[in-house]
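User: My collaborator sent over this chain with a note saying "see what the structure looks like." That's all I know about it. Can you take a look?
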Amino acid sequence: MTGIDPVAQKLLYSIMQFNKAKWRQHKPHGRNHNEIMVLACLLHGSHPGERMDWRDNPPDFESHLNQEHPGLKVSEISALMRVKSPTITPVIRGLEDEGLVERTMDPEDRRAVRITITDAGRAIIRAAHEERMQTFNRLVEHLGEEDSLQLAGLLSKVYTFFDAQVSGQNEAPEQRNKAVEQDNDASEPINQETKPEVSKQGDDTP
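Assistant: Without extra context I'll predict from the sequence alone. Here is the result:
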């Protein structure tokens, strides 16, 4: 068993604190995390946390928040959020009941339905974003600009590390399947070589 690295342990506990932090329970503008993420995906046409490079030029949120998008299929929203469709479907239904999103027919495929954000939904996501930015503005004041930029860089590295770990685990079964296929392909010539012998014995047998 590998020895426990005290630095790794301290890092683990520090990250675990975020799972029980009270601020995670806060609902910006009265909306839970999934509702905010669905509205954001619909507004931007992509996952809001992955659509830009935050390290160089900070995005002009106002211009992005005013962009129009044709909407997304439920499966596309699920893929962007990396969750299964059944998780997102009730969220979308609730937002639809409140008039924050609506279903529209795909002009290119009448059998498909796209989810689009309404003006009311845009107003909600703008207000939630402004409320959240006020919180992080205070965090920058608390940490200072230098530490804030360093923290942002480190958190990006943490995300990249864990994302690669998960991606590697998901690819492993596919690689194993390929290896099995290759083994099967490699065994085919042997079977072909032995077939004539079997047939010969069959011919010699009365």
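A starting point for your reply to your collaborator: DSSP finds seven helices and two strands in the chain.
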